[in-house]
Amino acid sequence: MVRSYFTHDNWMEEQADGGVPLYDDCYVEDLRTLKLAPWAMRGCDAAFIRFTDMGGVTEARVQEIPAGGTLKPFKLGVDEMVYVLNGRGFASVWGRSTEVRRDFEWSAKSVFIIPRNSWCELRNMEGDRPVRLLHFNYLPIAMSVISDPAFFFNNPETTGSLIDDADANFFSEAKDIVKEFGSAWGSVGGQVWRGNFYPDLLAWDKLVESRGRGAGGGSVYMYVPGSEMSCHMSVFPAYTYKKAHRHGPGRLIVIPGGDGFSIMWPQGGEDDKKIYRWHEGSALTPPDQWFHQHFNLGDKPARYLALHPPVQFIGKEQDAQGNSTEVNIDYVDEDPWIRQVFEEELGKRNLTTGMPDVCYTDPDYQFKSLSAS
Hints:
Blueprint (H helix, E strand, L loop, with lengths): L6 H11 L4 E4 L1 E2 L8 E3 L4 E8 L7 E7 L8 E2 L4 E7 L1 E7 L6 E7 L3 E4 L4 E6 L6 E7 L1 H7 L29 E4 L12 E4 L2 E2 L9 E2 L8 E6 L6 E7 L7 E3 L5 E6 L1 E8 L7 E6 L3 E2 L5 E7 L5 E6 L9 E2 L5 E2 L1 E3 L6 H12 L26
């Protein structure tokens, strides 16, 4: 085996040598059916996914809790965001004191945070089927700074955690705030949500208008208090599609609900477009600076959750306030093949496009806002 430049890559290869699957791709058709195998460190079945251009930036892995089972308590040295692919369960989180625990229930399509250096016990509350969880973190960057993997797992010397002095509402549903800081996600003065628990992304309807990417979609921008982790969910109407755009590496897109496809291609490689079909449980990551575009073939608004890398990897331009500006291709400037493929895919289902003709001729056309409809 040729060793990687990144400590984290080499550590994942060691887990793979122990039998844990390690997948290399920019796309997984369904995380809920991905083949897993026993991972001794966590005492459960798992798999790592080295999504394209996420090496050295972010980690993605799928873990399974058996029917009625409980995973032994585990402590990780970095914050971790968890998305529930299916099932229902219970989490118990604590810091220095085992007597002060923060407990909460989660279910399919929940998102929650496990704070760094806190102990976490995860339990499957269903006795007839396994639970599947997607874990996402910045461990690759941490391992590049401290190149001793053992430092991050159950380290008895690291005892401070955000959970130590947290109140009983630490895992209450996230609260909306007015954003007073610049970053890659959301605008200063806009509405964002801050918290450690989002109970059901498929039911979440607290959206803000998102005009920059077209199609009349809405978004929710999610931040983690005391952490640099963030994500956002975009929702866009039936039979429409969003503008193509590009950015830096390390973003992971997961589908909570909807039926459609994405097209991705490298900058300057317009003749090398590839189609990736998605539905609930699908995941993909656009490679660094690849254009990508999302299409909804379903009769309901489609949703995708974008798990963010650290802001250092946004790969976009920024304005004077520190907000990023995406590099879009407007509908009037896109390759006509894009519209053709979308309408052909709809035609296979005896459906017609929800994209008005005027959006292809008027660069200032504004869609009706989904959040206002």
